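Exercise 3.2. Students should predict the tertiary structure of the chain below and write it as structure tokens, then compare their answer with the key that follows.

Predict this chain's 3D structure.
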Amino acid sequence: MIFQTLFRNRPELRKIAAERIVPIQGDLVVDGCGINPDVRALLVEDLDIIINSAASVSFNEVMRDALQINYFGSLRVLALAKECKKLEVLCHVSTAYVNANMPSKTYCPEKMFDRYDG
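Answer key:
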């Protein structure tokens, strides 16, 4: 689990996350990220954090499709972020070549900061 260390050190955050994190349905290859207009209006008014980890890592993808998902999809998320009135964080997670300098099958432990400001 990606947040295992954080939740171990701050167990109260698990409850906060369950109350505040809401997954939504969308599609990065569609204008507006394929988000229902009513939901998008709520996001624009209230969203404070976006974590984008959507991508295709298939090396057999048709170039047009790969660009739509990985490049233009990221631009669509950025456009949404620019509209959000309360946005504090936009986190884009790259899904390929993050550990390109590491040997195959290497485990990369999660790094934690010494302090938490929130």
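Discussion points: Residues 25-92 form one domain. The longest helix spans residues 63-83.
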